[in-house]
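task queued by scheduler; priority normal; single chain, no ligands, no partner chains; default sampling; output format set to structure tokens
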Amino acid sequence: MNFPFDKEIVLENEIALLRPIQAADVENLLAVATKDKELLQFSPLPVYNKGLLTTYIDHAIESRQNKQRYTFCVFDKMQNAYAGSTSFLNISNADDRLEIGATWYGKAFQRTGLNRNCKYLLLEYAFGSLEAERVEFKTDERNTASRKAIEKIGGQFEGILRNHMLLYDGFRRNTVCYSILKPEWSRLSDHFLERNTPVV
């Protein structure tokens, strides 16, 4: 696998548009990021005011430059509005694997099907274009909504990393690990976006 950090990756379908995050997205994402202080309560980096959001985006841009993480700004075509952000991270070219994570959307965009469409675009790019063998997902053990969302898209539970990550409030979280393997994606992809499949 050879992740193209220098490429402007744009992923889209009729529901969602994902493009590389940029400094101007502070203004684009400010409304959704600051509407709910608890939006990223289970994450290491909060975004609930302009300063925190600016730091978050600056860090994301720097991480791409350092070839550590590739962060997208998410636009919801149905609501014609910026919805949040998601990333490829923990990228290991030598092992043909990466993680999809650091995902957050404003409350108005949750449980609308947007997340499923974004995950489809990211997974299709990872397994199709990058030819990854494994895609990982991680979340806080307490984050039941995130865990259910990962399970609904076919993520297989692998275990819990205890006392794994220090959050901004000083809490040390247990991290739950899931994955989808390339052969599994071949079975999941054909029906991933069907209407009768529960959306998340």
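post-processing summary
- The CA atoms of residues 1 and 80 lie 34 Å apart.
- The longest strand covers residues 81-92.
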